[in-house]
């Protein structure tokens, strides 16, 4: 996100932002900063987040400018006395740079540590003893100063959780046609999720995920994308689970690996035989001839024209033709007599 351009603020204004006097020392500046950054952190001001974000940025900017100003003043005094040998490192103070607010990866400290009032600063020496802004070096181990005084180290704001909890997965439906489930396809789906920005604010992010639908997948098949769900402070990103859903087909009905197709024939063809054209899934057709009597409920099975079997390569289910016989709605008296005379001897 872009940031708006602001005119420079005087040092006096920065003292006012932190609520301290111009004679404040570096520890005083650090103490005021820790108090205000805790009070105005956006995560603690959800009802007036816009104001909190603005104040949070001003507080960080004020701390950065004033702490640098104090350090410059101290460095100037040190440069005047550089020719004088130092008697003890206990008189030095650990220098720090401006605080860095880390994003979603900074959740690795004990939950008993306060999120705002304890911001550990680690030196490059590998020592595990934390320091906070304004802590005199005399309170730390002597070895720490030897390295920390050479380079500035930034206090890091961590979240409160040691082992972050993973929320329930987010479930979404992925609709597929029978043709797509029969032959396989590639689906590209746009997902929108909440992520934690580098400023600590939750923002919306869009991403396109690709799903390769395999031939023969059924309704209820699940595809999981780990960590692609919403992010929340103190928790791991949720998973997104897509569940296959079959769209209703105008002709075919799926039953497991088989397909069922209803075929209606007139009564006269059902009794005397017929030739019919059977549509197949995917657009092909096949012609079939029937010489036997077709009665209501008659079925014809066409092997290998159903859905693919995912666990059996190159094998498919069957196509089941279920016949519906169309009876006339009305017969004349003469037609009735003719039907009786023809059918009365049939068993």
Which SSEs are present, and which pair or pack?
Blueprint: H1 11-18, H2 26-39, H3 49-80, E1 100-101, H4 142-148, E2 156-157, E3 170-176, H5 178-183, E4 185-196, E5 202-213, E6 222-225, E7 240-246, E8 252-255, E9 258-266, H6 267-272, E10 274-279, E11 285-290, E12 299-302, E13 319-326, H7 333-343
Helix pairs in contact: 1-3, 2-3
Task: Give your account of this protein's structure.
This protein is of the alpha/beta class and 347 residues long. The protein is built from seven helices and 13 strands. It has helices at residues 11-18, 26-39, 49-80, 142-148, 178-183, 267-272, 333-343, and strands at 100-101, 156-157, 170-176, 185-196, 202-213, 222-225, 240-246, 252-255, 258-266, 274-279, 285-290, 299-302, 319-326. A hairpin with a 5-residue loop joins strand 4 (185-196) and strand 5. The chain is rod-shaped and about 130 Å long.
């Amino acid at each position: 996100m872009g940031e708006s351009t602001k005119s420079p603020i005087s040092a006096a204004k920065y003292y006012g932002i932190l609520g301290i006097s111009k004679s404040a020392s570096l520890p005083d500046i650090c103490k005021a900063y820790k108090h205000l950054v805790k009070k105005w952190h956006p995560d603690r001001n959800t009802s007036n987040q816009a104001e909190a974000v603005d104040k949070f940025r001003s507080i960080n900017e004020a701390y950065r400018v004033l702490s640098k100003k104090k350090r410059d003043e101290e460095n100037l005094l040190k440069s005047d006395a550089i020719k004088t040998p130092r008697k003890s490192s206990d008189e030095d103070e650990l220098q720090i740079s401006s605080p860095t607010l880390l994003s979603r990866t900074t959740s690795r400290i004990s939950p008993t540590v306060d999120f705002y009032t304890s911001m550990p600063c680690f030196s490059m020496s590998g020592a595990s003893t934390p320091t906070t802004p304004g802590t005199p070096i005399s309170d730390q181990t002597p070895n720490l100063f030897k390295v920390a005084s050479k380079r500035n180290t930034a206090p890091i704001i961590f979240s409160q959780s040691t082992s972050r909890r993973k929320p329930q997965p987010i479930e979404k439906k992925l609709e597929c046609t029978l043709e797509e489930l029969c032959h396989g396809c590639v689906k590209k789906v746009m997902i929108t999720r909440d992520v934690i920005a580098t400023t600590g604010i939750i923002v919306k992010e869009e991403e396109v995920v690709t799903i390769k639908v395999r031939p023969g997948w059924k309704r209820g098949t699940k595809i999981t994308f780990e960590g692609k769900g919403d992010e929340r402070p103190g928790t791991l990103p949720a998973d997104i689970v897509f569940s296959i859903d079959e769209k209703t087909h105008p002709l075919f009905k799926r039953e497991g690996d088989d397909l069922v197709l209803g075929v209606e024939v007139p009564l006269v063809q059902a009794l005397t035989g017929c030739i019919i054209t059977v549509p197949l899934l995917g657009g092909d057709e096949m012609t079939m001839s029937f010489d036997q009597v077709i009665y209501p409920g008659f079925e014809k099975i066409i092997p290998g024209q159903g859905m693919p079997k995912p666990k059996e390569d190159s094998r498919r289910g069957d196509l089941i033709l279920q016949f519906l016989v169309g009876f006339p709605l009305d017969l004349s008296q003469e037609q009735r007599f003719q039907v009786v005379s023809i059918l009365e001897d049939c068993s």
